[in-house]
Design goal:
This is Saccharopine dehydrogenase. The protein is an alpha/beta fold. It folds into two domains: 6-127 and 303-345, Rossmann fold; 136-295, 3-Layer(aba) Sandwich (Rossmann fold), CATH 3.40.50. Helix content is 32%, strand content 14%. The chain is built from eleven helices and twelve strands. The chain has helices at residues 24-33, 49-54, 104-114, 136-151, 164-172, 188-199, 209-213, 217-221, 242-245, 304-319, 328-345; strands at 6-9, 36-40, 58-60, 73-75, 90-93, 117-120, 179-183, 203-207, 225-228, 254-257, 283-286, 291-294. The strands form two sheets. A six-stranded parallel beta sheet has the order 3-2-1-4-5-6. It has a six-stranded mixed beta sheet with strand order 8-7-9-10-12-11. 42% of the residues are buried. The structure holds nicotinamide-adenine-dinucleotide (NAD).
Length: 346
């Protein structure tokens, strides 16, 4: 039994972030397994602190993780608050620091300064490199839902976080004869998108690699809604081009780009190069015929309870393998070590 492993679930730095990566139910399972689980108070986490206390977790004040015992593993969703700058512990969170992203160097410097290490959640993969835990399903669900609501003129901005029941209620309130195309339909986000469209009563076609290999642009343009949920590792043929915007045979009027590769070479929707947000979820790309795009890059936050529960459920069996057993956590740590080496050589 891993009695010596301590997990310290910290408060998220952003007050807009209600999600967490360990739910009270999964914390209880870890406690039952013999883990020490410490949880920081948080004014905005979707799960009340009392539920963690009832699960057998030790409750501490927000942002006290810098004082945690040196062998605690500090767990969060995104980068910790900026102070203290030096990160001394082993941390688990999404660092977004290995592909030259904005802020990547600064984050790696924090580890360099403190001698700590990062088990990046994005790098928890099986031996074939397949990601083991991700927020995709609820990203697709929310991305398709906002597209439907926008198409029906029922989307209120600014968007607010809600429960699935509340969102489903909005989706079920109104029916029309719209049809939708989901590209990437076999993936996590794609499956979520198809499910939301089903709840909304929207006729849906699903395309994945087989269908886009024999790409039929006219078929794509004959749908009212397009939900892009592909994972693109390399550039490829665009699904929509600027020439398509002015076509008067285009039925397509709303695009929800869940993939959101808007500034990357891999962007298959080069008609759009900007994300949208909760304040202005949709952006007009063309007037006659109308085409609006939604490209929200934090979709799972719209459904914080469901997305946290799904993520935590996926993470639980991996946390149970801690302390590092030489597989999934080691693979993640190897990527950190390689990235840090590059930083220190610069
Ligand atoms: N906007 C957000 O808030 C948000 C949140 C989570 C994930 N995402 C993004 O959503 C994307 C999908 O994530 P996922 O977890 O669903 O990935 P995934 O790997 O589970 O699924 C991707 C699917 O796309 C398909 N695909 C890849 N290239 C294709 C092509 N050219 N044509 C047709 N299908 C293709 C794959 O076969 C697969 O079925 C990622 O880019 C991810 O970063 C966005």
């Amino acid at each position: 039994m891993p009695i010596s492993t301590g997990l310290w679930l910290r408060r998220e730095a952003s007050s807009n972030e209600q999600r967490t990566v360990i739910t009270p139910a999964d914390a209880a399972a870890l406690v039952a397994d013999g883990f020490r689980v410490t949880v920081e108070e948080s004014a905005h986490r979707v799960f009340p602190i009392d539920e963690y206390a009832a699960a057998g977790c030790r409750i501490v004040s927000a942002d006290t993780w810098p004082d945690a015992p040196a062998d605690e593993i500090v767990v969060g969703l995104k980068e910790p608050v900026p102070q203290p700058s030096a990160l001394t512990h082993r941390h688990i969170f999404f660092g977004h620091a290995y592909k030259g992203q904005t802020g990547a160097h600064a984050l790696l410097q924090r580890f360099e300064e403190g001698g700590g290490s990062l088990y990046d959640l994005e790098c928890l993969t099986d031996e074939n490199g397949r990601r083991l835990v991700a927020f995709g399903f609820w990203a697709g669900y929310a991305g398709a839902a906002v597209a439907v609501l926008h198409h029906r003129g029922q989307l209120s901005a600014p968007l607010t976080a809600m429960s699935r029941a509340e969102l489903d209620d909005l989706l079920a309130r109104y029916r029309d004869d719209a049809c939708a195309l989901v590209i990437g339909a076999l993936g996590r986000s794609g499956r979520g998108a198809v499910e939301a469209l089903t709840v909304a009563g929207v006729r849906t076609t699903g395309w994945d690699l087989a269908e886009t290999r024999q790409f039929d642009k006219s078929a794509l343009l004959a749908h009212d809604l397009l939900v892009n949920t592909i994972f693109a590792a390399e550039p490829g043929r665009p699904f929509l081009t600027h020439d398509d915007l002015g076509r008067d045979d285009r039925r397509l009027s709303v695009v929800s780009d869940v993939t959101c590769d808007v500034t990357s070479d891999c962007n298959r929707l080069p008609v759009n190069d900007k994300v949208t947000d909760w304040v202005m979820p949709a952006r007009r790309l063309h007037d006659e015929p109308r085409l609006d795009v939604l490209a929200i890059d934090n979709l799972p936050s719209l459904l914080p309870r469901e997305s946290s529960a799904a993520f935590s459920m996926g993470l639980l069996p991996l946390l149970r393998q801690l302390p590092d057993d030489g597989s999934v956590w080691t693979r993640s740590l190897d990527q950190f070590t390689a990235a840090r080496k590059l930083t220190s050589e610069r």
